[in-house]
Write a structure and sequence with these properties.
Blueprint: H1 20-37, E1 41-42, E2 48-50, H2 51-58, H3 63-67, E3 71-74, H4 78-89, H5 96-118, H6 126-151, H7 158-173, E4 179-183, H8 188-197, E5 207-216, E6 228-237, H9 243-260, E7 266-271, H10 279-294, H11 300-308, H12 322-326, H13 337-352, E8 358-359, E9 371-378, E10 387-393, H14 397-400, E11 408-414, H15 415-424, H16 430-433, E12 438-443, H17 446-461, E13 465-467, H18 475-484, E14 489-493, H19 495-500, E15 503-507, E16 513-516, H20 518-526
Parallel strand pairs: 1-5, 7-8, 12-13, 12-14
Antiparallel strand pairs: 2-4, 3-4, 5-6, 6-11, 7-9, 9-10, 10-11, 14-15, 15-16
The structure holds histidyl-adenosine monophosphate.
Histidyl-adenosine monophosphate binds next to strand 6, strand 10, strand 11 and helix 15.
């Protein structure tokens, strides 16, 4: 029978384990190094933020916000919440005990609300007053019903009571107390929030920031798609309207991928025009009209998107929609002059930097904040989830979040996918190859143990990986253990070695041995 007490990582999450984590670390180290050469500094925003931040930035109608966020309510007043939920879930009462409990709950709720208003957890505004009024009415109806019911059975009152319960339930359900928080599904919104919060517009512009860490989306898990996944991202905020900024950011990204040894990368770019009232609005209206004409031939998702976000229809991977989509109007033919010039300049700037790209007019991206430049990078060995990075320009997002008008552009790399692709290519990338040689210290005897401890300390200080068995092992066993750990050398320390000051170093791959003094050993290992 299955052991029910066994815990497992939650679906869509996983443990990253050694030796794979060494690859994660070296990829992250490469990011730190490459991004620093482009003048970026690291930001570490919190992992949860108010839900409203993501709703406003990423867009309430996007899949990410409407379906995939891990959201929770945090409130100080657990009692208020308990009474609120009780009242908002009670719509029918058919016996005296229930009515009795309900009537008392109402007065508890009433008291809790008064407390919450007093200590500032609930606003003292018209809405709260209205809530008090409604509750007063329900309390009076429930009180009367209770009295009548106790005397005889006041079934005539049921209708009025039900209506009153309904009223109170609706009001109670609308009590918003505490904060609704979400685990971050992405970090661009947080970086913009931080830019505003710390007045970064006062710093030399543009401000260049990068981050790495876990993100959370409740998507259907599959290869390359997890519910907790990791991104390495970068954002450029503020500064002039210069297409060179877009191009340099992409150049940095490609330099990073190159350094990691990522194979088969393909960069796709597009311009989706100016936000809201300029060229994009006209294009979206036209697209919508065309989509209406072919609505019956589209799948349910695309049909829904005609209303919520017509641009996203272009993202569809459904086989039977491809031919239809190819015939739709293209944004490139509808860009205003400013956007056209900007797009042409971005392409020229990329060419000046030797960055190879492919244009893809259907690249619209799944987040609402984008405008003008969008881009995506795919890599080999990833199957259907082959986008290893996505990004784009988002002028106006900082303003939307309450800051000054600010330009913005950035990207996020899916680190899980990057690692998958690197592993697939068995890419012996430069970042993984220079691990220090590892030394297993096989010791026997008390005197040898003291020497082994000192040797371990000195070798680790010099940067070598050292394994020191915590209990005494016969040399044969120790060497077996060393091979299992893939150690490169075994340093054999027994009574003889310690007495002579001549240590035995065994190369495990070929079994060869040499005798060295402590000093000569260090020099030899350093010379490798
Ligand atoms: P995104 O396209 O939603 O953009 O995500 C960027 C990358 O994160 C994707 O290309 C993919 O590699 C990875 N990713 C997304 N979801 C998952 C998942 N469930 N499992 C594994 N990997 C995933 C953004 O997040 C934007 N904030 C990028 C950005 C920054 N735009 C401007 N600045």
């Amino acid at each position: 029978m299955a052991n029910k007490s066994k815990f497992q990582a939650i679906r869509g999450t996983r443990d990253l384990l050694p030796p794979e984590t060494a690859l994660w670390n070296s990829v992250e180290q490469t990011a730190h190094e490459v991004f620093a050469t482009f003048g970026f500094g690291e930001i570490r925003p919190p992992i949860f933020e108010p839900t409203e931040l993501f709703a406003r930035a990423v867009g309430g109608d996007t899949d990410i916000v409407s379906k995939e966020m891990y959201t929770f309510l945090v409130a100080d007043s657990a009692r208020l919440i308990a009474w609120r939920d009780f009242v908002s879930n009670t719509r029918k009462i058919r016996d005296l005990d229930e009515l009795d409990i309900y009537e008392r709950s109402l007065s508890y709720l009433w008291r809790e609300i008064r407390e919450a208003v007093k200590n500032g957890q609930l606003p003292d505004n018209g809405e709260t007053q209205e809530l008090f009024e409604r509750m007063k009415r329900t309390m009076s109806v429930a009180g009367t019903a209770l009295v009548e019911w106790r005397r005889s059975i006041g079934s005539a009152r049921f209708e009025e009571l039900d209506k009153s319960l309904e009223d109170a339930a609706v009001s109670a359900a609308s009590i918003k107390i505490g904060e609704e928080l979400s685990l971050r599904p992405e970090a661009t919104a947080s970086v913009c929030r931080a830019y505003i919060e710390h007045n970064m517009q006062q710093m030399p512009q543009p401000v260049k920031l990068y981050y790495m860490g876990p993100m959370f989306r409740r998507e259907r898990p599959q290869k390359g798609r997890y519910r907790q996944f990791y991104q390495i991202g970068a954002e450029i905020l503020g500064g002039p309207d210069a297409p060179a900024i877009d191009a340099e950011l992409i150049e940095m990204l490609m330099t990073f991928f190159d350094k990691c040894g990522l194979q088969g990368t393909e960069l796709s770019i597009n311009s989706i025009g100016h936000a809201a009232d300029n060229c994009r609005r006209a294009y979206v209206a036209k697209l919508k009209a065309e989509l209406e004409k072919v609505k019956d031939k589209l799948g349910a998702d695309s049909q829904r998107r005609i209303e919520t976000n017509p641009l996203r229809v272009l993202d569809s991977k459904l086989e039977h929609e491809q031919a239809i989509i190819e015939k739709l109007p293209r944004i490139a033919d509808h860009l205003c002059d400013e956007c056209k010039t900007h797009y042409a300049a971005v392409k020229r700037e990329l060419e000046l930097r030797g960055v190879i790209y492919r244009e893809n007019w259907r690249l619209v991206r799944g987040l609402d904040y984008y405008m003008r430049t969008t881009f995506e990078i795919t890599a080999q060995g990833l199957g259907s989830q082959n986008a290893v990075c996505g990004g784009g320009r988002y002028d106006g997002l900082v303003e939307l979040l309450g800051g000054p008008p600010t330009k913005g552009i950035g990207f996020a790399i899916g680190e899980d996918r990057l690692i998958l692709s690197l592993q697939d290519a068995k890419s012996q990338s430069p970042v993984t190859s220079h691990q220090s040689p590892s030394v297993y210290i096989a010791w026997m005897g008390e005197r040898a143990y003291a020497t082994a401890l000192r040797a371990a300390k000195d070798l680790r200080k010099a940067g070598f990986v050292v394994e020191l068995p915590p209990t005494e092992l016969k040399f044969g066993k120790a060497l077996e253990h060393a091979s299992k750990l893939n150690s490169r050398f075994a340093l054999i320390l027994g009574d003889n070695e310690v007495a002579d000051g001549q240590w035995t170093l065994k190369t495990l791959a070929d079994g060869s041995q040499q005798k060295l003094t402590e000093q000569a050993l260090l020099e030899y290992l350093r010379s490798l």
